[in-house]
Amino acid sequence: MSPARGKTLRDLARAAHLSVSGASYALRGHPSIPTATVERVRRLAAKIGYQPDLRVASLMAHIRRHQSPLGRETLAFVWVSTHRHEILPFHHRHYLDTVLAGARLRAEQLGCTLTEFWLDEAGMTPRRLGDILKTRGITGVIFSPAMHDLAVDLDWDWPAFACAIIGNTDWRPNLHRAGHHHYRSMWLTLQRLRDEGCARPAAILSRSIHERIHGVHLAAFQVNHPAPDLAAELAQFALPGQRDGLRRWTRRHAPDALVVGWPVAAPEAARLRALAPSARRVVTLDWQPGGALPGMDAGNDIIAANAVELVVAQLHRNERGVPAHPATHLNEGVWRE
Protein backbone atom coordinates (compact mmCIF):
# COMPACT_ATOMS: atom_id res chain seq x y z
CA MET A 1 0.00 0.00 0.00
CA SER A 2 1.41 3.38 -0.97
CA PRO A 3 1.84 5.97 1.82
CA ALA A 4 -0.96 8.52 2.27
CA ARG A 5 -0.40 11.76 0.40
CA GLY A 6 0.52 14.63 2.73
CA LYS A 7 -1.44 17.85 2.74
CA THR A 8 -0.17 20.40 0.25
CA LEU A 9 -0.07 24.17 0.31
CA ARG A 10 -2.98 24.13 -2.14
CA ASP A 11 -4.99 22.04 0.35
CA LEU A 12 -4.22 24.54 3.09
CA ALA A 13 -5.15 27.50 0.88
CA ARG A 14 -8.47 25.86 -0.03
CA ALA A 15 -9.28 25.18 3.63
CA ALA A 16 -8.38 28.75 4.60
CA HIS A 17 -10.32 30.27 1.66
CA LEU A 18 -7.17 32.00 0.42
CA SER A 19 -5.09 31.94 -2.71
CA VAL A 20 -2.01 29.72 -2.66
CA SER A 21 0.23 32.78 -2.53
CA GLY A 22 -1.90 34.25 0.27
CA ALA A 23 -1.56 31.08 2.33
CA SER A 24 2.19 31.05 1.69
CA TYR A 25 2.54 34.67 2.78
CA ALA A 26 0.50 33.95 5.92
CA LEU A 27 2.70 30.99 6.88
CA ARG A 28 5.79 33.20 6.52
CA GLY A 29 4.22 35.94 8.64
CA HIS A 30 4.58 38.42 5.80
CA PRO A 31 3.89 42.01 6.97
CA SER A 32 1.20 42.46 4.28
CA ILE A 33 -0.96 39.79 5.95
CA PRO A 34 -3.03 40.73 9.04
CA THR A 35 -1.81 39.13 12.25
CA ALA A 36 -5.17 37.47 12.83
CA THR A 37 -4.98 35.81 9.39
CA VAL A 38 -1.42 34.64 10.03
CA GLU A 39 -2.45 33.01 13.31
CA ARG A 40 -5.59 31.47 11.75
CA VAL A 41 -3.65 29.92 8.86
CA ARG A 42 -0.93 28.56 11.13
CA ARG A 43 -3.52 26.97 13.42
CA LEU A 44 -5.30 25.49 10.42
CA ALA A 45 -2.01 24.12 9.05
CA ALA A 46 -1.41 22.32 12.34
CA LYS A 47 -4.97 21.02 12.39
CA ILE A 48 -4.92 19.48 8.89
CA GLY A 49 -1.33 18.24 9.24
CA TYR A 50 0.26 20.46 6.61
CA GLN A 51 4.08 20.36 6.70
CA PRO A 52 6.25 22.38 4.29
CA ASP A 53 8.81 20.62 2.13
CA LEU A 54 12.27 21.83 3.12
CA ARG A 55 13.70 21.54 -0.38
CA VAL A 56 10.76 23.33 -1.96
CA ALA A 57 10.97 26.10 0.64
CA SER A 58 14.68 26.54 -0.08
CA LEU A 59 13.99 26.61 -3.83
CA MET A 60 11.26 29.23 -3.41
CA ALA A 61 13.54 31.38 -1.24
CA HIS A 62 16.13 31.19 -4.04
CA ILE A 63 13.51 32.18 -6.64
CA ARG A 64 12.31 35.12 -4.53
CA ARG A 65 15.89 36.40 -4.19
CA HIS A 66 16.41 36.32 -7.92
CA GLN A 67 13.15 38.11 -8.60
CA SER A 68 14.45 41.20 -6.76
CA PRO A 69 15.88 44.05 -8.89
CA LEU A 70 19.46 43.19 -7.96
CA GLY A 71 18.84 39.45 -7.82
CA ARG A 72 20.02 39.29 -4.20
CA GLU A 73 18.36 39.19 -0.79
CA THR A 74 19.25 42.23 1.31
CA LEU A 75 19.97 41.73 5.00
CA ALA A 76 19.99 44.55 7.53
CA PHE A 77 22.92 44.98 9.91
CA VAL A 78 21.46 47.10 12.71
CA TRP A 79 23.83 48.94 15.04
CA VAL A 80 22.11 48.79 18.41
CA SER A 81 24.04 51.00 20.83
CA THR A 82 26.97 52.25 18.78
CA HIS A 83 26.72 55.72 17.25
CA ARG A 84 27.56 56.19 13.59
CA HIS A 85 30.36 58.69 14.29
CA GLU A 86 31.31 57.51 17.77
CA ILE A 87 35.01 57.72 18.66
CA LEU A 88 35.99 54.46 20.33
CA PRO A 89 39.25 53.04 21.72
CA PHE A 90 41.27 51.33 19.01
CA HIS A 91 40.55 47.77 20.19
CA HIS A 92 36.80 48.47 20.35
CA ARG A 93 36.82 49.96 16.85
CA HIS A 94 38.85 47.03 15.55
CA TYR A 95 36.39 44.61 17.14
CA LEU A 96 33.38 46.26 15.51
CA ASP A 97 35.11 46.54 12.13
CA THR A 98 35.99 42.83 12.33
CA VAL A 99 32.40 41.92 13.19
CA LEU A 100 30.97 43.93 10.29
CA ALA A 101 33.53 42.54 7.82
CA GLY A 102 32.74 38.96 8.90
CA ALA A 103 29.00 39.50 8.54
CA ARG A 104 29.37 41.18 5.15
CA LEU A 105 31.63 38.47 3.76
CA ARG A 106 29.34 35.63 4.85
CA ALA A 107 26.27 37.42 3.50
CA GLU A 108 27.97 37.75 0.11
CA GLN A 109 29.01 34.09 0.16
CA LEU A 110 25.37 33.14 0.73
CA GLY A 111 24.16 35.31 -2.17
CA CYS A 112 22.96 38.27 -0.08
CA THR A 113 23.93 41.89 0.36
CA LEU A 114 24.35 43.55 3.76
CA THR A 115 23.20 47.11 4.46
CA GLU A 116 23.97 49.02 7.67
CA PHE A 117 21.36 50.87 9.72
CA TRP A 118 21.76 52.86 12.96
CA LEU A 119 19.23 53.18 15.75
CA ASP A 120 20.86 56.36 17.12
CA GLU A 121 20.14 58.65 14.16
CA ALA A 122 18.00 61.75 14.78
CA GLY A 123 14.31 60.93 14.80
CA MET A 124 14.95 57.19 14.55
CA THR A 125 13.10 54.68 16.73
CA PRO A 126 13.08 50.89 16.54
CA ARG A 127 9.51 50.94 15.21
CA ARG A 128 10.36 53.51 12.55
CA LEU A 129 13.43 51.57 11.46
CA GLY A 130 11.32 48.41 11.26
CA ASP A 131 8.86 50.23 8.98
CA ILE A 132 11.77 51.39 6.77
CA LEU A 133 13.04 47.83 6.45
CA LYS A 134 9.58 46.52 5.56
CA THR A 135 9.17 49.24 2.92
CA ARG A 136 12.47 48.13 1.38
CA GLY A 137 11.42 44.47 1.49
CA ILE A 138 14.10 43.54 4.03
CA THR A 139 13.05 40.75 6.37
CA GLY A 140 16.42 39.44 7.62
CA VAL A 141 18.08 41.38 10.46
CA ILE A 142 21.41 40.94 12.24
CA PHE A 143 21.71 42.98 15.42
CA SER A 144 25.19 44.23 16.27
CA PRO A 145 26.94 43.67 19.60
CA ALA A 146 25.51 46.04 22.22
CA MET A 147 28.69 47.78 23.32
CA HIS A 148 27.18 50.06 25.98
CA ASP A 149 24.26 48.02 27.34
CA LEU A 150 24.11 45.02 29.63
CA ALA A 151 20.53 44.38 28.48
CA VAL A 152 18.52 45.38 25.39
CA ASP A 153 14.74 45.68 25.12
CA LEU A 154 13.53 46.84 21.69
CA ASP A 155 10.02 47.87 20.68
CA TRP A 156 10.20 45.96 17.39
CA ASP A 157 7.73 44.31 15.04
CA TRP A 158 9.18 40.86 15.63
CA PRO A 159 6.68 38.80 13.56
CA ALA A 160 7.80 40.61 10.39
CA PHE A 161 11.47 39.64 10.61
CA ALA A 162 13.96 36.79 10.89
CA CYS A 163 16.57 38.00 13.39
CA ALA A 164 19.77 37.02 15.17
CA ILE A 165 21.98 38.73 17.76
CA ILE A 166 25.77 38.99 17.83
CA GLY A 167 27.26 38.70 21.32
CA ASN A 168 26.28 37.74 24.85
CA THR A 169 24.20 40.74 25.94
CA ASP A 170 20.79 39.87 27.40
CA TRP A 171 17.89 40.62 25.06
CA ARG A 172 14.16 40.87 25.65
CA PRO A 173 12.68 38.99 23.92
CA ASN A 174 15.29 36.27 23.65
CA LEU A 175 16.39 35.59 20.05
CA HIS A 176 18.75 33.30 18.21
CA ARG A 177 22.30 34.46 18.81
CA ALA A 178 25.93 33.83 17.91
CA GLY A 179 28.61 34.45 20.50
CA HIS A 180 31.97 33.39 21.87
CA HIS A 181 32.43 30.39 24.16
CA HIS A 182 34.01 32.42 26.99
CA TYR A 183 34.00 29.58 29.52
CA ARG A 184 35.92 27.30 27.18
CA SER A 185 38.42 30.04 26.33
CA MET A 186 39.40 30.40 29.99
CA TRP A 187 39.43 26.64 30.39
CA LEU A 188 41.74 26.14 27.37
CA THR A 189 43.99 28.99 28.53
CA LEU A 190 44.47 27.39 31.95
CA GLN A 191 45.03 24.03 30.32
CA ARG A 192 47.74 25.49 28.12
CA LEU A 193 49.44 27.19 31.07
CA ARG A 194 49.28 23.96 33.06
CA ASP A 195 50.93 22.08 30.16
CA GLU A 196 53.69 24.70 30.23
CA GLY A 197 54.30 23.98 33.92
CA CYS A 198 52.42 26.91 35.48
CA ALA A 199 50.85 25.90 38.79
CA ARG A 200 49.77 29.30 40.20
CA PRO A 201 48.20 31.37 37.42
CA ALA A 202 46.42 34.57 38.45
CA ALA A 203 43.73 36.46 36.53
CA ILE A 204 42.85 40.14 36.21
CA LEU A 205 39.36 40.35 34.73
CA SER A 206 37.07 43.11 33.50
CA ARG A 207 34.05 43.75 35.72
CA SER A 208 31.89 44.94 32.80
CA ILE A 209 32.71 41.87 30.70
CA HIS A 210 32.15 39.70 33.78
CA GLU A 211 28.61 41.05 34.11
CA ARG A 212 27.89 40.82 30.38
CA ILE A 213 28.90 37.14 30.16
CA HIS A 214 27.29 36.15 33.46
CA GLY A 215 30.54 35.45 35.26
CA VAL A 216 31.72 32.54 33.15
CA HIS A 217 35.37 33.70 33.03
CA LEU A 218 35.58 33.64 36.82
CA ALA A 219 33.63 30.38 37.03
CA ALA A 220 35.95 28.66 34.56
CA PHE A 221 39.00 30.06 36.35
CA GLN A 222 37.90 28.74 39.74
CA VAL A 223 36.74 25.34 38.53
CA ASN A 224 39.70 24.59 36.25
CA HIS A 225 42.54 26.21 38.20
CA PRO A 226 45.54 23.95 38.94
CA ALA A 227 45.13 24.87 42.63
CA PRO A 228 41.34 25.18 43.12
CA ASP A 229 41.67 26.05 46.84
CA LEU A 230 43.68 29.17 45.91
CA ALA A 231 41.69 30.19 42.84
CA ALA A 232 39.39 32.67 44.60
CA GLU A 233 42.39 34.60 45.96
CA LEU A 234 44.16 34.57 42.60
CA ALA A 235 41.46 36.47 40.67
CA GLN A 236 40.95 40.24 40.73
CA PHE A 237 38.83 42.75 38.83
CA ALA A 238 40.36 45.91 37.37
CA LEU A 239 40.12 48.31 34.45
CA PRO A 240 42.72 48.28 31.67
CA GLY A 241 45.67 50.34 32.91
CA GLN A 242 44.53 50.25 36.53
CA ARG A 243 47.19 48.92 38.91
CA ASP A 244 46.25 50.44 42.27
CA GLY A 245 46.45 47.71 44.89
CA LEU A 246 47.40 45.05 42.36
CA ARG A 247 51.14 45.23 43.04
CA ARG A 248 50.70 44.14 46.69
CA TRP A 249 48.35 41.39 45.51
CA THR A 250 50.81 39.95 42.95
CA ARG A 251 53.73 40.14 45.41
CA ARG A 252 51.71 38.38 48.10
CA HIS A 253 50.63 35.51 45.84
CA ALA A 254 53.65 35.38 43.46
CA PRO A 255 51.72 33.94 40.46
CA ASP A 256 53.77 32.10 37.87
CA ALA A 257 51.40 33.23 35.06
CA LEU A 258 49.03 36.14 34.58
CA VAL A 259 45.80 36.06 32.52
CA VAL A 260 44.14 39.37 31.58
CA GLY A 261 40.67 39.80 30.14
CA TRP A 262 41.20 42.49 27.49
CA PRO A 263 43.42 43.30 24.47
CA VAL A 264 46.86 44.58 25.46
CA ALA A 265 49.19 46.87 23.50
CA ALA A 266 52.97 46.93 23.96
CA PRO A 267 53.23 49.67 26.66
CA GLU A 268 50.57 48.01 28.80
CA ALA A 269 52.17 44.58 28.31
CA ALA A 270 55.44 45.88 29.74
CA ARG A 271 53.61 47.32 32.75
CA LEU A 272 51.80 44.04 33.35
CA ARG A 273 55.07 42.11 33.30
CA ALA A 274 56.52 44.59 35.80
CA LEU A 275 53.38 44.23 37.92
CA ALA A 276 53.87 40.48 38.20
CA PRO A 277 57.63 39.81 37.92
CA SER A 278 57.11 36.25 39.16
CA ALA A 279 54.93 35.42 36.12
CA ARG A 280 56.72 33.49 33.41
CA ARG A 281 53.78 34.02 31.06
CA VAL A 282 51.39 36.95 30.62
CA VAL A 283 48.50 36.12 28.27
CA THR A 284 45.14 37.56 27.25
CA LEU A 285 41.64 36.18 26.75
CA ASP A 286 41.10 38.74 23.95
CA TRP A 287 43.92 38.44 21.43
CA GLN A 288 43.81 40.89 18.54
CA PRO A 289 46.17 41.47 15.61
CA GLY A 290 48.75 44.06 16.60
CA GLY A 291 48.43 43.25 20.29
CA ALA A 292 51.49 42.51 22.41
CA LEU A 293 50.36 39.35 24.22
CA PRO A 294 49.60 35.81 23.13
CA GLY A 295 46.17 34.48 23.94
CA MET A 296 42.75 33.39 22.75
CA ASP A 297 41.44 34.76 19.46
CA ALA A 298 37.63 34.72 19.79
CA GLY A 299 37.17 34.71 16.00
CA ASN A 300 34.81 37.68 16.01
CA ASP A 301 34.46 37.63 12.23
CA ILE A 302 33.35 33.99 12.41
CA ILE A 303 30.86 34.78 15.18
CA ALA A 304 29.29 37.47 12.98
CA ALA A 305 29.22 35.04 10.04
CA ASN A 306 27.39 32.54 12.25
CA ALA A 307 24.75 35.18 13.04
CA VAL A 308 24.22 35.72 9.30
CA GLU A 309 23.79 31.97 8.84
CA LEU A 310 21.17 31.89 11.60
CA VAL A 311 19.16 34.57 9.80
CA VAL A 312 19.50 33.04 6.34
CA ALA A 313 18.46 29.63 7.69
CA GLN A 314 15.27 31.19 9.07
CA LEU A 315 14.58 32.86 5.73
CA HIS A 316 15.00 29.52 3.94
CA ARG A 317 12.55 27.93 6.38
CA ASN A 318 10.13 30.86 6.03
CA GLU A 319 10.37 31.51 9.77
CA ARG A 320 9.78 34.93 11.30
CA GLY A 321 9.30 36.35 14.75
CA VAL A 322 10.49 35.42 18.23
CA PRO A 323 11.61 31.77 18.26
CA ALA A 324 9.88 29.41 20.65
CA HIS A 325 13.26 27.87 21.46
CA PRO A 326 16.07 30.39 20.86
CA ALA A 327 19.35 28.79 19.81
CA THR A 328 22.81 29.97 20.85
CA HIS A 329 25.77 29.25 18.57
CA LEU A 330 29.03 29.48 20.56
CA ASN A 331 32.29 29.79 18.64
CA GLU A 332 35.39 28.29 20.20
CA GLY A 333 38.48 30.50 20.18
CA VAL A 334 41.93 29.71 18.76
CA TRP A 335 45.23 30.24 20.57
CA ARG A 336 47.54 32.81 18.97
CA GLU A 337 51.15 33.52 19.89
What does this structure look like?
With 337 residues, the protein is of the alpha/beta class. It has 3 domains: 1-52, 434 Repressor (Amino-terminal Domain) (Orthogonal Bundle); 73-180 and 301-336, Response regulator (Rossmann fold, 3-Layer(aba) Sandwich), CATH 3.40.50.2300; 182-297, Rossmann fold. It contains 13 helices and 14 strands. The protein has helices at 9-16, 20-28, 35-48, 54-67, 90-109, 126-135, 182-195, 207-212, 216-224, 228-231, 246-253, 266-275, 300-316; strands spanning 73-79, 112-118, 140-143, 151-153, 162-166, 170-172, 177-180, 201-205, 235-237, 257-260, 281-284, 295-297, 328-331, 334-336. A 6-stranded parallel sheet has the order 2-1-3-5-7-13. Strands 9-8-10-11 form a 4-stranded parallel sheet, with helices on both faces. Helix 2 (20-28) crosses helix 3. The longest helix has 20 residues, at 90-109. The N and C termini lie far apart (64 Å).
In short:
This protein is an alpha/beta fold.
- The spatial strand order of the largest sheet comes to 2-1-3-5-7-13
Helical residues, percent: 40-55%
Q: What is the succession of H and E elements?
A: HHHHEHEHEEEEEHEHHHEHEHEEHEE
CATH class term of the largest domain: Alpha Beta
Alpha carbon gap, first and last residue: 64 Å
Largest sheet: 6 strands, parallel
Q: What would the average pLDDT be, to the nearest integer?
A: 89
Number of helices: 13
Principal-axes shape call? elongated
CATH superfamily of the largest domain: Response regulator
Q: Number of folding domains?
A: 3
State the oligomer: single chain
Counting helices, strands and paired strands, the structural category is alpha/beta
The CATH architecture term of the largest domain is 3-Layer(aba) Sandwich
* Estimated radius of gyration: 24 Å
Task: Report strand %.
Answer: 15-25%
Give a count of the beta strands, DSSP E runs of length 2 or more.
14
Ranges with pLDDT <50 over ≥5 residues? none
From the 3D structure, determine the CATH topology of the largest domain: Rossmann fold
